[in-house]
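Trying the structure run again after the queue cleared.
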Amino acid sequence: MSKKLEKSFLYKAIHIGVLMTYNLLLIPALLKFWDLEVYGIWIALYVVFNLIKVFELGHSTFVGNEINRIVHTDALKAKHVLGSAVKANFIVAALQPLTVLLIYKLNLMSFFLDDNIDQQEVVHVLLILFAYRFVLGSFRNLIQKVLNPFGLIYKMFQHAIIETIIEFCILVIAAYSKMTLIELALLWFAVKTVMSLFMLYDLKRMLPEFFPWWKHGDFKTGLRDMKASFSFALSNFLDRLGNDGIVLLVSAFVGTTFLPLFTATRTIVNFGLKLSDFFLTPLAPEMINLFSQAKTELIKNIFRAYWFFSSFLLIIGFVSSLFFMDWLFAVWTSGKLEFNIELYCFLAFIFLVKNYGKVLVVFFTSINKTSVILWTTIIRIVVIYGLTFLLSEYDIMAILFSMFIAEFAVVSLWLPVFSLRLFNIRGVDRFNFFTNLVTALLVGLYFLFYIEGYFVLSGITIVLVAGFLFRQYQLISPDLRENIWFRLRQLTKFIRI
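Done. C-alpha cells:
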C-alpha cells in the first residue's frame, strides 16, 4: 500500500474522530441553548439545504471521476474537463437559490414545517446559505476533485476537518449568543467565505500546474459534461432524499419538535457510517484502477473484507450498547430527550442492512454506472415514500418499516443482479455473496428478542451471528486481512489519543 494511501487512511481516521466529537458535543450544546422548536427548525431547513446542494455535488463528483480516469494518460484533456466544468458550474450555483424560491412559491414548506413556524424566515436563511455556495463554496468543492488521482485525497480530509471545526464554532457561538437563524446564516456566510479563500490558495499551492483552473476548456464542453452528469446528480439527490429526506417525513408525520430525538438517536447509529467511510472513501480510487485493469477478483476481495470488518465492529458496538445506552443518552442530552430503545434498535438494524449494499453502491458510483445508481435510488425512494404514505396512521413506525423494506429490496434483489453478472459469480460463491446480508437479518432478530425479553432466543441468535461472521472472515485473502487489521490498529491508536 502506497504512502499516500496510508496517509489518506490516517487523515480519514482523524476526520472520523472530529466528526464523532462534533456530533457528541454539538447536540447537547444546541439542546442547552435552543428550545426544541428552534432546534427542529434548524434541522429541517439544513436538510433542505443539503438536498438542494446535492445537484452541485453530483456534478463535481462526475467531473472528478472523469479527471481521475484520464489525467495520467492525457493531462491536457483533464485540464480541459476541469476548466469547462468551472465555467459551467455557475449555472448550477445559480439554480440553487432559484430552487429555494420555487419551493416557497409552491408552498411546499408547509408540508414539513409546523403551522406556527415563519416560512419567510426559513427562506431567507436558505438564500443566505446558498449565497455562500454561489460565491465560493461550490467552486471550491469542484477544484478539490483534482486532488484524488494524485494520491492527495488526504488534503481533502484535512480541509474537511477544518471545515467541520469551523461549522461547530459558528453554530455554538450563534446559539450561545441567542442569534436569530438569519443572523446565524450571515455569520456562516462571512466565516466560510474567508475559509474557502484560504483553502483555494492551498489547492493552488498543491497542484500549481492546474492553475488558473479556468484557463482551459470552454462553456460548451462544460454544459455537455453537466448534461452527462445529470442522471448521476439526480441519483445523488434521490439518495439524499432517501436518507436526509427521512427527517422531513418525520417532521411532516410526527412533528418538528420530534426531530431532535430522531436526529440524536440516528446520530448515534450513524457513527457506524463514519466507520464505513473510513474503509470505503480511500479505496474508491483504488477500485477504479483495479476495474480499469480488469482485476475483478481483487475487487471482490475488497468487498469481502469490507463486509466482515465493518459488520464485525458495528455489531459489537450496537449489541453491547444496549446495556448502557439508556443511561448514556440521558447524560448526553442532559435529560432533555428520553431514550427510545425501539427507535434505536430499528435504526441500527436498518443501518446494518444498508451497510451490506454500501460497498456495491460506492463501486458502481466510482466506475460511473449511473443508470444502476439512479435506479437504485429510485427504488429506494418509491418504496420509502410510498409505504410511508400508505401506513401514515402508524406515524414513526410507518417510516421505520418503510426504510427497512426499501433497503432490503435494494440489497437483496436489485444490486445483486448487476453484481453477480458483472463479476460472473456462480455456484456456492453466490451464497457467500449474501452471507453478510444474512448476518444483518440475524442481528435484527436479536434486537427483536432482546426488546421483547426473550433472552434465551437472543443468546442463540447471537451465536448464529458469530458463526456467520467467522465464515465471512474465512473468505478474505490472508494478505488483505493483515492490511485491514493494520488500518484498524491505526484507528484505535487515534481513538486512545
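The first helix runs from residue 3 to 33. Worth checking whether this holds up in the mutant runs.
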